[in-house]
Amino acid sequence: MAEGLLGGILGEEDDKPEAETPEVLAGAEAFAAAVTARLSGNDPGVARKTEIFLDHQSRLLETQCEHLKDEHALRLAHLRHQSHLLRGQRLGQTLRIGFQVFVALVATVIGLGIAGMLHEALTARSVVIDPFDSPPALAANGINGKVLASGLLDVLTRIQAANRSSAEHRALSNAWTNEISIEIPETGLSIGQIQRLLRARLGHDLRIEGDLLKTANDGFALTVRGTGVLPKKFTDDAGDLDKLMTQAGEYVYAQSQPGLWAWYLGDKGRSDEAIRFSQDAYATAGSAERPYLLNAWANAVIAKGGDVEATLRQALHLYREAVRLKPDYWIGLYNVMEMLSNLGEEESVTPIGEKMLSAAGGRPGRADENMYQYWDVLTWNLSALRAGFISDMESYGGVGSITESSGSENLNVAQIDVQMHDVEAAEFRLRTTQVDAHSPADTTLAALVRGLLAAEIGDAAAGAREMDVLRAAYANPVVATNFTPVICLAPPLFEAAGQSAKADEALAAVGQLKFVDCYRFKADILARRGDWAGAEEWYAKSVKLAPSLPAGYYSWGLALANHGDLPAAAKLKEANQRGPRWADPLKAWGDVLAKRGEKKDSLAKYDEALKYAPNWKQLKAAREAAAAT
Predict the structure, then answer these.
(1) Per CATH, domain 126-256 is 3.40.50
(2) If 421 and its partner were Cys, which of 310, 433, 594, 616 is the partner (CB 3.0–4.6 Å)?
(3) In the CATH scheme, what architecture does the domain 516-629 have?
(4) What is the pLDDT of residues 353-407, one digit of tens each?
């Protein structure tokens, strides 16, 4: 019985085939019906009980199913709630992280701000003008403390703007310009007040104050004083307040920035004042100011002029002392090279140039390119020399920083254009330069450029006329001191125009000083006059005078080539080694090689020369001729 029941349920075959068992039961009712049908054939009572049991189980299953549905809905609702909670937690966590980052950023900004204020305070080195004291009657008429302080600030600012020295300029401000109206609740102090307190405690500002009073004669008495500035009273019975402000401003500037003030005096042609001030201020000046005082002192000595060699020696001593005190004083090194050049000690310029190159970390480096000017002149590094002048003009309002002593820098560039054989560029520079007829430097340099340009285009007579102007200017000690070796450029132009006597006079004008250009041009003149032995003697002297410089070798090599001596290439090669960026020796070397029939090598020299004189017409023609063959 049991075996039959189990067998039926499990779907096995039965000995009694009265009832057919369905192959698939889809639900509880189908299962109950199948079991009842199976059992009803054996015992109706059992079948009924089984049916009741199975019916009960079916209802139980239905109830469980309903519970499962409800539980499923609850589970879904719980899961949705948990999801919302998780999203809320993630959002809250994100907000907390964001807030923490915000707080960190705010703290960082505050910390940087505090660090910035501390750094500014520690490095502060400004001239700060506080409001002056002014009587109520004057204040009522608009002459109050702020107006007076602003007037002094205007004077100082004008002096500062006119001073083209590359020495450090102190910042100029008045006491209220940087006020910030943010309040700090704990102290009631503004940020601006805190900055001023820090600067006063930690910095090195020079604070200036003063007062204005009416005099018995209905004039004004203006007193200024400050940190390191002794009180000084300026009076004017005529009541000229502008005059008093100018006097007071110059006094404050001189006391607070002695090196710059001495430079300013010299730059404005007040050489005697600059010398006296430098002598008086040097003993009490700080170590940082002394190199600038010495440099300005020497500048004034040169500008004043006098016996050429004695003046140059005195200035050289001052410049060298300035460099000893400040080894990275680029202007000082520049001036040392200038003095050595003007004294005829040109061979000594190269070690100074190399010293500056090393200290500046190469080119370009910490030293301005224009500081290598005299080294570039002697090594004929014309492209760099030209770029240095142009950069200096761009840095100083289009006029440059050395116009007082060296003439318009635009004229300096024009001279270089001629020496690079760029006639059109030189002519354009001349047309666009306003030559100051009252400036000895300008008139001298303009005559030199015009003379060289005339020689470049083959107008010997015009070149000689310009050299007459140059020779007359050279009689001025100021010109002779500032442009000492320039006179050496005049003799070949006089000789080309058939004015031999003037050529000899120009050579004699340098006195006992010895210059490579004077020696090599004297040799050129002797060769032109047919004295080849005398010419070779002076070429040898020019090379011996400055063996590290290229000019003597070049003139000697060119003369050998013109004399029919083809081994001239050896001298031209030496010139190129000592002045590798000078186009002229390369062209002359290429010409010698072309005459030898070494066309490929001559083309290489011409191509290299074109890098340094790209607009030289004769060079281009020589190159085309060599290429054609």
Answers:
(1) yes
(2) 616
(3) Alpha Horseshoe (1.25)
(4) 999 999 999 999 999 898 999 999 999 999 999 999 998 888 877 777 666 556 6
Helix, strand or coil for residue 218? coil
Residue with tokens 């001191």: 481
Domain extent listing, the chain: 26-97, 126-256, 380-513, 516-629
SS3 of 129, please? Answer: strand
Instruction: Please give, one letter per residue, the 3-state secondary structure of 10-70.
Output: CCCCCCCCCCCCCCCCCCHHHHHHHHHHHHHCCCHHHHHHHHHHHHHHHHHHHHHHHHHHH
Percent of the chain with pLDDT over 70: 79
Strand partners of residue 127: 172, 206
Q: Which of 10-14, 68-72, 492-496 has the lowest mean pLDDT?
A: 10-14
Choose among 440, 509, 481: nearest CA to 312: 481
Cβ–Cβ contacts within 10 Å for residue 459, how many? 16
Supply the pTM of this predicted model.
Answer: 0.75
Architecture of the 380-513 domain: Alpha Horseshoe (1.25)
pLDDT given for residue 36 in this prediction = 55
> CB burial class (10 A; 0-12, 13-18, 19+) of residue 142?
exposed
Rounded to 10 degrees, what is the CA torsion of 416, 422, 423, 426?
Answer: -40
Cα(609)–Cα(238) distance, integer angstroms: 68
Mean pLDDT for the stretch of residues 36-45 = 56
Q: Does residue 438 surpass a pLDDT of 60?
A: yes
Task: State which amino acid sits at residue 461.
Answer: A
The answer to whether 252 touches 174, Cβ cutoff 8 Å, is no
Question: Could you report the per-residue pLDDT of 321-341, keeping only the tens digit for each?
Answer: 999 999 999 999 999 999 999
**Strand, coil or helix: 233:** strand
Q: Average pLDDT for residues 73-86, to the nearest whole number? A: 71
> Is there a common fold for 126-256 and 380-513?
no
